[in-house]
Amino acid sequence: MISCGKRAYRRTGLSLILNGRRESLAGCTDRRGTKGRATEAEGGLSVQGFYFDELTVGQSAEMSRVVGIADIEAFAEVSGDNNPVHLDDVYAKTTTFGERIAHGMLSGAYISAILGTKLPGPGAIYLSQSLRFRRPVKVGDLVVARATVKALDAARGHVTLDTTCAVNGKTVVDGEALVIAPRRGA
After folding, report:
1. Which of 34, 120, 159, 169 is least crowded, fewest Cβ atoms below 10 Å from its Cβ?
2. Residue 91, C-beta contacts closer than 8 angstroms, at least 6 positions apart
3. What predicted TM-score, i.e. pTM, was given to this entire model?
């Protein structure tokens, strides 16, 4: 376990990007009292996060995922979006894309994962999200999702974040999220 303030989380191998530098969670300790931020994941679940007062403009976090056929099929099952451009190779070959593409909202889900598990992290409440779909995501693409703190409203505990997903350095999705970040003692 890692303790950050009054919160305790599983140890993870994840880091954050703060002011252009990869960093771990300062002030965190594991159950042995070892200072540090990130170690190997137990169960692969990242649950590190920040209270509102620990956030700064420019702070960012990211995650990467390779999109597989199983991911697309699972997303279709959960969402009910059975559009054949996502699920049927024969049909997809007749489209502008020439092959199956991932659901745009799958990339949106990667952004949601950052906000709920990394920045701000556990306890964050989504208020809104705008998304612009710039390019398709195809089977086998490595999607790098990133959220960057754009503005902080201390009176309301609101955090505005720029959100992006990129494949091979090219933006596939961008937008803006508004969340409520957890406060200490709340």
Report:
1. 169
2. 84, 85
3. 0.75
Mean predicted lDDT score pLDDT of the chain: 81
CA dist 65 and 102 (Å) reads 12
In the chain, which ranges are continuous DSSP H helix? 69-79, 84-87, 89-93, 104-117
Burial of 111 (0-12, 13-18, 19+ CB in 10 A): buried
Give the length of the chain: 186
Across 117-139, b (16+ Cβ under 10 Å) vs e yields: bbbbbebbeeeebebebebbbbb
At 1, which amino acid appears?
M
Q: Residues near 117 by Cβ (< 8 Å), separated by ≥ 6?
A: 45, 46, 47, 48, 49
pLDDT, tens digit, for every residue of 20-62?
Answer: 433 344 434 333 232 222 323 444 444 568 999 999 999 999 9
Widest CA span of the chain, in angstroms?
59
- Between CA 31 and CA 171 the distance in angstroms is 40
Residue 94's pLDDT band, with cuts at 50, 70 and 90, is: very high
**So what's the pLDDT on residue 5?**
39
> Which stretches of 7-111 are assigned E, i.e. beta strand?
7-9, 16-18, 21-23, 29-30, 60-66
